[in-house]
């Protein structure tokens, strides 16, 4: 290490180094103090250590170093040195929640400093004003500092000032001004070696992308910033706060809550900044409220309010009060006092220029409506509704929600439907900027209220056709447009390969009874990396896909009947489509149906094993109860042709073939009527080549595959070492028929990592998304391959829903564990029907009928369903 005590200039170089290479700066500062420095040099070293502890360590230690640095600067009789330390101390005091002391330190710093030093002090006070939410004061101090910093060609501090001004602009919604300042700052950063500041610039650009409505770009930039910070070994509390905001906008509130809570725990262990803790608590409360956990949201928000109040951060405190009020309303609380409190919050947010002000007015209107205070509700909702014509998508969605509630209160059904349509159009545009199906699915949750309002009005109007249109308007929208194909990203491809290898090793270790925690940790790390890379994809579609057309559906049904189950206010409504019309029948309680479906699933799991025959009558009785709840009066009108069932996401695991009225029917299931229509109109590939795949570890060894190979003759057969994921994907692409005999694993926690086991590891949903065109027909003969996760408003994620938008018109899969031996005769009979020219649904009906009558075979037949229309 060179001698950094040789002169004042070399010691002063430590100050910019703490943001370029924090670890090296800390080491050099400690070396200086160990060499018996002068008061001036010791002041600089203590200031560097104080900055390091303030930003990356223990704030209490930071304050001790900075007070020592201040006293040493006074002993050195250097006014500018003292002013500089006073500014650094002021920032630390504010972050410690000692706002009055911090601002007093700045007052002394501004008075002691002159020229260039004073400009740097003003910049840091501007930063503190931003932390406190006092944006006018922040902009004023930056205005005073920038000309001086530019005049002396101080590129580093000029870039910092521009970055700060851009951040303040974002806080008040001036996105264009922010982008201009970020761009100018980044040009300056490129001329410096300030790696930490460069990482901060990337993070800031991520925030700007988010404010501009580009969530994939925001996630990509925040991930890049995190990688840069990791190389420097610095904590990323502010990054966590920003990522939470982006994740919530993408509908990933549980993930945001986990990130915020983890950051809070780390901050507490390190004794870090009180200001950051308050901000993280606010992010956590917001995420908990969005995730439907009102009690956690109340607890986090209440602490955040107290901290912000003690820190004199009114802007932040007001935002925390908004979340606290929303969480209390979600927990069922309503009172006149809460109307007044929400209105006061809205007024204060408006005075701050906060984009959240319409949200507070909407809340006040909601509470007033619930209390029957129509005049008050109208006043607050009218204010909130002004945001519907401008601003980012969330603000416009808030405005249209307010307008819909106004129209409902005024008795205008037409007005409700128009507001719902306009609001969902905004969300459609927003969804289509997202490339990852996962993000598109989760984002739909933001439109759930508008869709529900439109359904309520349609039901009240007594129009089954309109209720069908609105049920389709927000069901399985992810399947309504082609997905964005993942880019040929070498990092993503290598991550997928590494994931397969690690997952295969972990599975082998489990099978041998020796779980290896290190493998599981690496597997989770690779999952996070793959998930992050796929979320970076922007949307390629220019619209939200084909609009659902009832007339086209009725024309294409012919003699078939389509039964769509719409849920309004917790009750099932059966919409029977066929014979040129749509009829409605009242069903039962959704909650009862979901509970009954779970009982059936438990029964099927038991029946998959010999010796559980006594359960069969109980399962059949549950099937009868499900029929009463879900089909009710529609049963006599089902006709004699094919039946297509379109259930809501919460009922996707119902084994429909178990219902008495459907057992001997040609029966298929679809996530939406629109999805069935698209499958019905999908043309098969010209060559129609069959592909047969046999994965490892099946109890029967995939015994049906050799017989099927003899049946088809020209089929491509992949088994043993040939059944590796790259080869399997290559053969599946564009195939006419694919039969995959492979163990299936459903991941409820992360459905896009649901998998089929191949020779080299799992074939996951993310792999299927790389197909240019998935097989026209796919048969998945193993357990749980039809299990899906319900997310968003009414979306489903899993293997089946990944295949349908990629060109697959029909899938046969199981929604429950099945008996491997009983699957073999079912599959052979199914292919016999296909060979005779039947559809998947027709062939599956005949295959069930050909099975032996024992409980195991019956349960196996009920567990499988045909999806789509091929």
Give a description of the structure.
The protein is globular and about 100 Å long. The model is unreliable at 1-7 (pLDDT under 50). The longest helix is centred in the middle third of the chain and has 22 residues, at 490-511. It has a six-stranded mixed beta sheet with strand order 7-6-8-12-15-16, sandwiched between helices. A five-stranded mixed beta sheet has the order 3-2-1-4-5. It is 62% helix and 9% strand. InterPro entries: CHAT_dom, TPR-like_helical_dom_sf, TPR_rpt. Residues 621-868 form the CHAT domain. This is CHAT domain-containing protein.
Query: Taking Cα atoms only, what radius of gyration do you get, to the nearest Å?
Result: 31 Å
The global form is globular
**Beginning-to-end CA distance, first to last residue:** 73 Å
- Please state how the strands of the largest beta sheet are arranged side by side: 7-6-8-12-15-16
Task: Chart the SSEs and their pairings.
Blueprint: H1 8-12, H2 14-20, H3 22-33, H4 39-56, H5 59-75, H6 79-95, H7 99-112, H8 115-131, H9 135-151, H10 155-171, H11 175-189, H12 195-211, H13 215-232, H14 237-249, H15 253-270, H16 274-290, H17 294-310, H18 314-330, H19 336-352, H20 357-371, H21 374-385, H22 393-409, H23 413-431, H24 437-443, H25 448-461, H26 464-473, H27 490-511, H28 517-535, H29 550-557, E1 561-568, E2 571-578, E3 581-589, H30 590-607, H31 616-630, E4 643-646, E5 667-669, H32 673-680, E6 690-694, H33 704-712, E7 716-719, H34 725-732, E8 737-741, E9 744-745, E10 755-758, E11 761-764, H35 765-768, E12 777-780, E13 789-791, E14 795-797, H36 799-803, E15 810-814, H37 820-835, H38 840-850, H39 855-863, E16 864-868
Parallel strand pairs: 1-4, 4-5, 6-7, 6-8, 8-12, 12-15
Antiparallel strand pairs: 1-2, 2-3, 9-10, 10-11, 13-14, 15-16
